[in-house]
Amino acid sequence: MSTIAAFYGGKSILITGATGFLGKVLMEKLFRTSPDLKVIYILVRPKAGQTLQQRVFQILDSKLFEKVKEVCPNVHEKIRAIYADLNQNDFAISKEDMQELLSCTNIIFHCAATVRFDDTLRHAVQLNVTATRQLLLMASQMPKLEAFIHISTAYSNCNLKHIDEVIYPCPVEPKKIIDSLEWLDDAIIDEITPKLIRDWPNIYTYTKALGEMVVQQESRNLSIAIIRPSIVGATWQEPFPGWVDNINGPNGIIIATGKGFLRAIKATPMAVADVIPVDTVVNLMLAVGWYTAVHRPKSTLVYHITSGNMNPCNWHKMGVQVLATFEKIPFERPFRRPNANFTSNSFTSQYWNAVSHRAPAIIYDCYLRLTGRKPRMTKLMNRLLRTVSMLEYFINRSWEWSTYNTEMLMSELSPEDQRVFNFDVRQLNWLEYIENYVLGVKKYLLKEDMAGIPEAKQRLKRLRNIHYLFNTALFLIAWRLLIARSQMARNVWFFIVSFCYKFLSYFRASSTLKV
């Protein structure tokens, strides 16, 4: 039997961010491999018109939990949802609920965070830094706590080229920033933000770095570990390939490309696409939770879970495979034929964004206005282009992450644990994974029926023919205008026609002689 699975049996586990992508996959794996765990506490924000129990059933009412319901039929009874708001002091948790958490919790997985690149500094610091400090304070009052696992990001120190499994200091102490934000108004905060984040590309990565410093400074005598995943993508194997439920990161690009909205991306084609499957991250999290609780390392260990250093795949290879998958499994009702040009030239990218993205969107909105419908395409396109521009920093660079601690942990696992909690990304077949990824976006995110694939292929064929006809017509019109205005163009044209005529005459004469 798996040692790690047995470890979580009978445990009371607190998960923050349980309603998010990573949190859901973590819960699923825990229930599927350790159905005899005692309880999972999840912190849930109040939502109008829904009770806590309804929120739990909403989470469980997903294909993700189908296998769990077979091995753990009473799974809904083992999820204890607690009203909480991470924007408030003490998370606004009731006195009774707080007492239960403090007295019963054995393991904490802190997954909650704002992942918006363009968030305000005040809000990002509150969720990624202050809330982490508050949770650590709670953890220090938990007599039964065995391990505190903090989920950061591999890009928390992306201002460096080579990143080791250590906690790097930030130029300004987190406490000073937290204290300053209490009395500074929003206008001043917006003004000083660029000076604070310095060479970090956005507020998200900067505040995640601050969060790691808080973990180091406020750890007290707790057994703590930090996990840094790179770009978290769809499931690889568990509970089935391709499951995804949000439009963050690559998911939005896949949808935009598959629907024909996205035509050009400013990217370095040979830069490493450091995508890591979410189930691989979860397997490492559970292995780290076990190791931290049982072996109690003397210092806070950092674990990188990335793909680039062990099994690299560049953006060009990924893009080619995504487009190849669209040919086999097209999305329904694409706006245009899927295509994506990778270019490292900023001017070319901006040109294509203006001509190939916005122009058709404006034309389509005019059509919607004429038919009495609300125009929406230009707004959608602007939002898409803004998202892509925020990702440009990451798709134009490659990083080197050391993985000594991750490899050490892998060697500590028994063969059975290595099988059940597999986080060895060297076994990942990228072509197979990308195809399942695109299929998962179609099935689980866009909710498209697989029975509609033949019709979608026909539509794709029509769009391809229209694309070729349009380009041919555009070329002929441009060439005709050029001939009318340029003597040199006319000379070239007459030379080509004359050459073709002579070649055909020679070919015809040769055929006659052979006969």
From TrEMBL:
Q: Where in the cell is it found?
A: Peroxisome membrane
Q: Taking every annotated instance into account, which residue ranges of this chain make up the domain Fatty acyl-CoA reductase C-terminal?
A: 357-448
Family according to the record = Belongs to the fatty acyl-CoA reductase family.
Q: Which residues cross the membrane?
A: 466-483, 492-509
Q: What does the record give as the function of this protein?
A: Catalyzes the reduction of fatty acyl-CoA to fatty alcohols.
Q: Where is the Thioester reductase (TE) domain?
A: 15-285
Its domain of life? Eukaryota
The EC number(s) attached to this protein equal 1.2.1.84
Q: Name one Pfam family in it.
A: Sterile
Q: Which InterPro entries match?
A: FAR, FAR_C, FAR_NAD-bd, NAD(P)-bd_dom_sf
Q: How does the record say this protein sits in the membrane?
A: Single-pass membrane protein
GO BP: long-chain fatty-acyl-CoA metabolic process; wax biosynthetic process
Q: Which GO molecular function entries does the Swiss-Prot or TrEMBL record give? A: alcohol-forming long-chain fatty acyl-CoA reductase activity; alcohol-forming very long-chain fatty acyl-CoA reductase activity
A cellular component term, taken from the record's GO annotations: peroxisomal membrane
Which gene produces this protein?
FAR2
Give the protein's recorded name. Answer: Fatty acyl-CoA reductase
Q: Does the keyword Oxidoreductase apply?
A: yes
Swiss-Prot/TrEMBL keywords: Lipid biosynthesis, Lipid metabolism, Membrane, NADP, Oxidoreductase, Peroxisome, Transmembrane, Transmembrane helix
CDD domains associated with the record:
FAR-N_SDR_e, FAR_C
* UniProt catalytic activity: 22-methyltricosanoyl-CoA + 2 NADPH + 2 H(+) = 22-methyltricosan-1-ol + 2 NADP(+) + CoA; 24-methylpentacosanoyl-CoA + 2 NADPH + 2 H(+) = 24-methylpentacosan-1-ol + 2 NADP(+) + CoA; a very long-chain fatty acyl-CoA + 2 NADPH + 2 H(+) = a very long-chain primary fatty alcohol + 2 NADP(+) + CoA; tetracosanoyl-CoA + 2 NADPH + 2 H(+) = tetracosan-1-ol + 2 NADP(+) + CoA
